[in-house]
Amino acid sequence: MSETKKSDAAVPAQAPAPAEEREVLLKVEGLQKHFPIRKGVLQRQVGAVKAVDGIDFEVRKGETLGVVGESGCGKSTMGRVITRLQDPTGGSIHFEGKDITRLNTAGMRPLRRDIQMIFQDPYGSLNPRHTIGSIVSAPFRLQGVEPQGGVKKEVQRLLELVGLSPEHYNRYPHEFSGGQRQRIGIARALALKPKLVVADEPVSALDVSIQAQVVNLMDDLQEELGLTYVIIAHDLSVVRHVSDRIAVMYLGKIVELADRTSLYEAPMHPYTKALMSAVPVPDPKRRGAKSERILLRGDVPSPIAPPPGCRFHTRCWKATEVCRTVEPPLLELRPGQRVACHHPENFEDQQPQDTVLLTAAKEAAELVADEVLAESAQTSAAVAAEVLPQTGKVTKDASKEPAAEAPETDAEGSETDAEASVDAPAEGDEK
Ligand SMILES: Nc1ncnc2c1ncn2[C@@H]1O[C@H](COP(=O)(O)OP(=O)(O)O)[C@@H](O)[C@H]1O
Ligand code: SF4
Ligand SMILES: [Mg+2]
């Protein structure tokens, strides 16, 4: 992912209106998706998987909202619910100002043209027995649409649009590589000229070398066709260059939502910071530079019984008593930057009286020099994808004690080793 599509630097001369001034296309409020857990002969409900547990955000016309978080935090469920492939348990979804929360299949049919989804698995999402022509033209058949010039011509135009050959029309999915299959999936999603495209980890299954090509293709198509995207990824490096704003999810909640620059330059939620420090330094000149990463211990807790208070407190190196008992609301601490944390980074402490770290916090995270990680990682991309869930395996560098060892300093939000470590990767990508 070395190519940058959206410049981090100054706004180009003919920039579209700033994100906050554009019209809202999708508005989600208090969205919940709980999957019931049933037991016994009577199939009584004994609990629920709280996959999405009360999230609010909006997506503006023409923007790309990136959604990131570790596996299992509810990203795919969120994607399926906002496209109404699944029914929400609570909350509301408005599309172009219209309440679509409870629309049935018939009510959703006209909207199926406007809202499309691209799936993670380019192998599983294309029927192997159908030709490419049949796959890409399926939306026309389903919606009873006859494009100008006929279906075949339009499908061939779409294939060209996504960088394939019109001659691929009669070929079968097995004849294509993963990257080409994902292009076919994109062509199918774009057939009906949708307004909103929700892409669920569109490049996770692809080789690292192909990932940038597909993401860049999506970015080009957005400009050409005026699309609005929600791009889901578990890895910040994928959404980093193409997102206008980024939502960070943890256990069914949004913990931070900010424009890309703010998020990268001054992340405020400790989880965002840890996710960012797992992103490899893309600049080869900096790769040898000494930097450290924050490694979170343990896995994401179960969404069946999420931890009380702040859901991240079992893994957060800044957690204090208030974090264990009071759920932090998602507040706009800076213009355009919403954060749910009692002791945010890069900002004044919201609970300065509460400075005693929980025992768990002292063991929650560790700082590891990059060289230690380099030994066990073949490629920097592999690190980004895997480092978080595997943190327990990495040796601790005793000379670099985590910020958790200095409770007072930490609670006051001053510079710590941890902060320095995250800044390094962020800077490495500036040009
Ligand atoms: N149909 C389902 N029934 C029960 N639990 C589900 C279902 N779909 C997802 N889940 C659970 O919801 C949680 C979030 O899953 P998912 O949305 O796939 O997360 P992500 O995409 O972030 O990896 C997981 O614990 C998963 O096991
Ligand atoms: S400091 Fe507290 S509120 Fe903030 S993320 Fe950590 S545990 Fe949650
Ligand atoms: Mg998923």
Structure description:
Belongs to the ABC transporter superfamily. Residues 387-431 are annotated as: Disordered. GO terms for molecular function: ATP binding. The protein has two domains: 19-38 and 48-249, P-loop containing nucleotide triphosphate hydrolases (Rossmann fold, 3-Layer(aba) Sandwich); 267-428, no CATH class. It has 431 residues and is α/β, with parallel strands linked by helices. The protein has helices at 75-82, 105-114, 132-143, 151-161, 178-190, 208-225, 236-239, 260-265, 270-277, 284-287, 321-325, 359-364, 370-376, 380-386, 407-411, 417-428, and strands at residues 24-39, 44-60, 64-68, 90-95, 98-99, 115-118, 196-200, 228-233, 245-250, 253-259, 292-296, 331-334, 337-339, 365-369. An eight-stranded mixed sheet has the order 6-7-8-3-9-10-13-12, with helices on both faces. It has a four-stranded antiparallel sheet with strand order 2-1-4-5. Mean pLDDT is 81; it is low at 7-13, 281-290 and 376-431. A hairpin with a 2-residue loop joins strand 12 and strand 13 (337-339). The chain starts with 23 loop residues before the first strand and ends with a helix. The structure holds adenosine-5'-diphosphate, iron/sulfur cluster and magnesium ion. Iron/sulfur cluster is lined by residues 269-270, 310, 312-313, 316, 318-319, 323, 328, 341-343.
Number of domains: 2
Structural class: alpha/beta
Query: What compounds sit in this structure?
Result: adenosine-5'-diphosphate, iron/sulfur cluster, magnesium ion
Average of the residue pLDDT scores: 81
Query: Total helix count?
Result: 16
**How would you write the strand order of the largest sheet?**
6-7-8-3-9-10-13-12
Proportion of beta-strand residues = 15-25%
Rg, Cα atoms, Å = 22 Å
Number of DSSP-assigned strands: 14
Classify the fold: give the CATH topology of the largest domain.
Answer: Rossmann fold
Shape: globular
**Superfamily (CATH H level) name of the largest domain:** P-loop containing nucleotide triphosphate hydrolases
The H-and-E topology, N to C, reads as: EEEHEEHEHHHEHEHEEHHHEHEEHEHHHH
* CATH class bucket of the largest domain: Alpha Beta
**Major β-sheet profile:** 8 strands, mixed
- What is the CATH-assigned architecture of the largest domain? 3-Layer(aba) Sandwich
